[in-house]
Specification:
The chain has 494 residues and is α+β, with helices and mostly antiparallel strands. The protein has 16 helices and ten strands. β3 and β4 form a beta hairpin.
Length: 494
């Protein structure tokens, strides 16, 4: 069997779904898992089903362990109204500037260690999202701090279909918000208390941000940050809507597309300088991990990074590569680390896109090649591959896009056909130039004009596609039976 990890990944996912929807007793899951484990080690026809049952039980237990809150968890101190607290903990994220240009401050994730409520200090655990107005000192990853402010629940959506911010933060184990008072409500006790290599990667990101902001106009700097670093903090809202409504928003976030380009650049560069194969594999794996942290460890980047490690491992062991097996391995790693990622739209869209590429691209490619002129064979093959992959992703993802964004965008086929080559060049050249600029800053100024021209071309293409009548439709919330029917049809025909 070339893809032995597919069934375990499906069974683990089923266990996670069962744990969220039915919440079976833990003792019962242990009993079923133990019996299934016993059957799986015996030579019988039930061996494979029993092993899948074991993986399903693992999914249930892992989800129960992830969602269980200790007695002294910060979420257990929350009340109906915000409560005044003093907290001590460590900054575990790379703090970001507030989105509102009229306010000065930062947003950071704090791992709480102690809380003072009603004049009493007590040990505490858990993550809170802190909003710090006009801090006296800027925070950084690894800072140990004391903060004073108001601790509150994450608000639930007020209307049907509204973004569920509470659920989104909960999937990242953030259960509370902390609004920190301005000026003197923050004290830094110590610096550099986190992992030094993560701190070094964040330092590299800050240096790249400074290079971008110094060499480009604000509108171009925000767009370049989005393409290269996955940040959408300084984007024009109309442009952002244009990317969403043309089905090209996936190009505006760092995803497997970027990771694939980075991996190709690494292989090309390391081979060019003459390094042996196994040293190239090790360095590529380390660099992919660094790039994952550099871009915020978003779900699509995590998926692509794990798939990259699986591919590098297969090359190291001189094994045949199975793309479905690599995808299943990525799902197993991510869901083991955080089972709640299964319910994250980014996780679903990322894995759905790759699965669609694997299922539909080979069939569509041959058909499209037969329709194109053959005067320039290599050009026909490349155009057919790009068009086939774009159509494959649209076929596989339109139900999810309609569910999450209430949008169906046939124009995305044309838009991606135009934009993917431009974005590929931008990401490849931009990453090389900016990383080189860390060592030789004038390099960024030399290439700023070329990168700006690429950005203008991308904006022009998106704007043109966005203006085409009937290119995208706003739809109501699709029903479960429509989603299930669509994917059942895909399963039958694939």
């Amino acid at each position: 069997m070339r893809s032995p990890l597919i069934l375990p990944a499906l069974a683990l996912s089923s266990g996670i779904l069962l744990a969220q929807w039915l919440t079976p007793p833990v003792w019962l899951v242990f009993v079923v898992g133990a019996i299934s484990m016993l059957i799986s080690v015996l030579p019988s026809a039930l061996r494979v089903p029993a092993l899948m049952m074991v993986w399903g039980c693992v999914g249930v237990l892992r989800t129960a362990d992830t969602t269980a809150l200790p007695a002294h968890h910060v979420a257990r101190t929350l009340r109906e109204e915000p409560v005044a607290v003093v907290g001590q903990g460590m900054v575990v994220s790379d703090p970001m500037e507030l989105l509102d240009p009229n306010e000065e401050g930062q947003v950071a994730v704090i791992r709480v260690r102690h809380l003072k409520i009603d004049q009493r200090w007590a040990p505490a655990v858990g993550l809170v999202r802190a909003r710090i107005l006009e801090p006296r000192i800027p925070l950084a990853y690894g800072d140990e701090v004391v903060l004073e402010g108001a601790l509150s629940r994450v608000p639930s959506p007020g209307n049907p279909g509204q973004f569920d911010w509470a659920a989104a933060l909960s999937r990242h184990h953030i259960q509370a918000l902390l609004s920190v008072k301005p000026h003197h409500a923050l004290v830094r006790l110590r610096k550099h208390q986190g992992r030094r290599w993560i701190e070094a990667v964040y330092g590299l990101r800050h240096r790249v941000e400074q290079l971008i902001d110094g060499a480009f106009a604000p509108e171009h700097a925000g767009l370049l940050r989005s393409f290269l670093l996955g940040q959408r903090t300084n984007l024009d809202e109309r442009l952002k809507h244009a990317f969403v409504e043309t089905g090209t928003i996936h190009l505006l976030v760092v995803s497997g597309f970027n990771v694939g380009l980075v991996a190709w650049l690494l292989e090309f560069g390391l081979r060019w300088i003459g390094l042996p194969l196994r040293l190239r594999l090790v360095l590529s794996g380390i660099c992919l991990l660094g790039y994952c942290v550099l871009t915020g460890m978003q779900a699509p980047v995590l998926r692509a990074t794990v798939m990259g490690w699986v591919i590098l491992g297969a090359i190291w062991l001189d094994r045949l590569m199975s793309w479905p097996n690599a995808l299943a391995a990525a799902a197993l790693v991510i869901l083991w680390a955080n089972p709640l990622q299964l319910f994250d739209p980014g996780f679903q869209l990322s894995f759905g896109a790759v699965l669609s590429l694997l299922l539909f691209t080979p069939r569509l490619h041959g058909w499209i090649v037969s329709l194109l002129p053959t005067a320039v064979p290599w050009l026909s093959r490349h155009v057919a591959l790009l068009l086939a992959s774009t159509c494959a992703v649209w076929i596989g993802l339109w139900p999810l896009l309609a569910w999450y964004f209430h949008l169906v965008a046939p124009i995305s086929v044309v838009a991606n056909l135009l934009l993917v080559p431009l974005v590929s060049v931008l990401v490849s050249v931009g990453n090389v130039v900016l990383l080189g600029g860390v060592v030789a800053p004038p390099l960024v100024d030399w290439f700023a004009g070329s990168l700006t021209a690429l950005l203008n071309g991308i904006v022009a293409c998106v704007s043109w596609c966005h203006r085409i009548p009937g290119g995208w439709w706003v739809v109501g919330h699709p029903s479960w039976w429509l989603i299930a029917g669509s994917y059942s049809l895909v399963a039958v025909t694939s």
